[in-house]
Amino acid sequence: MYPAADTxxxxxxxxxxxxxxxxxxxxxxxxxxxxxxxxxxxxxxETDRAIDAAAAAFGPWSAxxxxxxxxxxxxxxxxxxxxxxxxxxxxxxxxxxxxxxxxNEVRYAADFLAWFAEEAKRVHxxxxxxxxxxxxxxxxxxxxGVVAGITPWNYPMSMITRKVAPAVAAGCTIVLKPAEQTxxxxxxxxxxLEEAGLPPGVANLVTxxxxxxxxxxxxxxxRVRKLTFTGSTEVGMRLAAGAAATxxxxxxxxxGHAPMIVFDDADPVHAAKGxxxxxxxxxxxxxxxxxxxxxxxxxxxxxxxxxxxRTATLSAGPGTSPGVSIGPLVDDAALTKVxxxxxDAVERGARLVLGGTRLTEDGLDRGxxxxxxxxxxxxxxxxxxxxxxxxxxxAVIPFDTEEEVVARANDTAYGLASYLYTRDLGRATRVSxxxxxGIVGVNDINPTGAQAPFGGVGVSGLGREGGVEGLDEYLDVxxxxxxx
Length: 484
Ligand code: ADP
Prior knowledge:
By secondary structure, this protein is α/β, with parallel strands linked by helices.
């Protein structure tokens, strides 16, 4: 069990290993810049061996009963909840989110283990009446084989269980490459699965500071039959293109540019509360973060006032400090991008109502902190209207009619989450059906859960995670025709 040595963060065939050449990379706390550990910096050779291990483990693991696979996942779920506080502290330190949010994420991560433990037992096939006499059709669902999983830093545990749990439940084996910013969270999750009884080789971990060579091996190897990725649209498109060479199945969970629409029949204060909670969750570093907040003219003033009042109460700091609800941004590049979007909007006529700058007082200069920000009078000419922000900036856009706002909300290549506030049932139904997004929250800022299919359309991705659909992504359909 981990840790054999601090830097033995590769899990290959049930053994915790260092990189072949002993290379490591630093892991730092984004709030303070402090070194909190080192991880093994693996390359192509270690990746190949991880694939070997996953390929060798596939036969026996897929031959286990679904009940046996479910038992392991259920034990992992229970262990995760037992260790929830330690895991949350690790996540808050390594990723930066407030401890309360980290606790929520640990619970969310555990939910995937429990959900797919149950769903493992429900991989039903079917029989289809044939159009011929003396003939039968039967449909089976079988595990796709070895899976490559690549995960991001913003939700460093739940994005792992959202992939590993369904893969393992389906009878697949997996090689996971976590983000270079958060390898220790990945180690913690994999160690817990191992402790729960997952056999060697079923889930393998390759930590690295060099995603390209590792990604290349995962893409090139024909034994890897599926790639599941969460990250930026840009990288996702490149990886999907690479996966095509060996015709791997792909699930892509990419960027978003979520609209939130507040109609004037809604309570603007209630909607502003929801907007604040959704926008500043994870410091805006979420693919479902509302990036364009459309507010109908009649309530825009009341809404903005309530939004500013709530946002002004948010305090920034290291996630492990009490009372903090705004953690650091991931790095300098993120800070630069957010500042650029704010400056551009102001130059083009937006009103900066709150925040707008980096925070440097009281030691915050050691991390990349940006003040919770509210911009009003945003329009189509501004960068923030088109580009994902991934930071704590609420951009308020006035609108007049339902028809207009649906067209404007849909005017994006992204299509992940969308939100609307209205008390009118007819309008809620019309608008949620017209929005071209994979997810719609109706008076709901958290339309997600392990039991519900999460995913986007357009350049936001392919496939779904969670729900019944989340398991299907790891199953091939086999048709058996039998002449009697
Ligand atoms: P983000 O903006 O969230 O950091 P990225 O798409 O850059 O998004 O990163 C998401 C994940 O993709 C991380 O695990 C990162 O290491 C990985 N990644 C980035 N580039 C590549 C690549 N060329 N090959 C494989 N993985 C990659």
